[in-house]
Amino acid sequence: MCRQEIAGRNVHHAGVPRTPASHGRSRPITAVTPSTPRSPRGALRVSAAVELITLAVLLTNMATLDARPVAALTGPVHGFAWLFGVIVTWRDARRTTGTVVRAAIPGIGGMLALRALGRADARAGAPAAR
């Protein structure tokens, strides 16, 4: 492979610039661009699912084993998912006071907020944010 030194950068004969820190390895300099657009409500969907699943685990644990390690692990995860869901709902462009209040309901608030935001999208005539 034919290499040239141009302005402190290694350049492969094809003219693709290489990073100086690569020490001759062929790692091209590339711009960081997302391959697919991120879903504005994807984080809320994940948070709502985690909130609901952890609630089911907590209630099942309470009804059967009542194991403290399960509660110690699942409880904070449930709380974080609930709080994250409330914050993401509050930051959504189509939120209303009712949507944020629905999001604050422990356990199912994230799912209720998703449903309300989907209805707000339908009323506005916008495609649903997935």
Would you mind describing this structure in some detail?
- The chain has helices at 42-63, 68-91, 97-103, 109-124, and strands at 3-6, 9-12.
- It is 53% helix and 6% strand.
- It has a two-stranded antiparallel sheet.
- It has 2 domains: 1-30, no CATH class; 42-124, no CATH class.
- The mean pLDDT is 81.
- The protein is built from 4 helices and 2 strands.
- A hairpin with a 2-residue loop joins strand 1 (3-6) and strand 2 (9-12).
- It is mainly α and 130 residues long.
- Helix 3 (97-103) runs antiparallel to helix 4 (109-124).
Question: Descriptors for this entry?
Answer:
elongated; two-stranded antiparallel sheet; transmembrane; 53% helix; 2 domains; plasmid; 2 strands; mainly alpha; 4 helices; 130 residues; DUF3817 domain-containing protein
Structure summary:
The protein has 130 residues and is mostly helical.
| Coarse morphology | elongated
How much of the sequence lies in strands comes to 5-15%
* Number of helices, counting only DSSP H or I runs of 4 residues or more: 4
- Spatial strand order of the main sheet: 1-2
Could you name the ranges where pLDDT drops below 50 across 5 or more consecutive residues?
A: none
How would a textbook summarize the main sheet? 2 strands, antiparallel
Mean pLDDT: 81
In whole angstroms, how far apart are the ends?
47 Å
Number of domains: 2
Topology:
Blueprint: E1 3-6, E2 9-12, H1 42-63, H2 68-91, H3 97-103, H4 109-124
Antiparallel strand pairs: 1-2
Helix pairs in contact: 1-2, 1-4, 2-4, 3-4
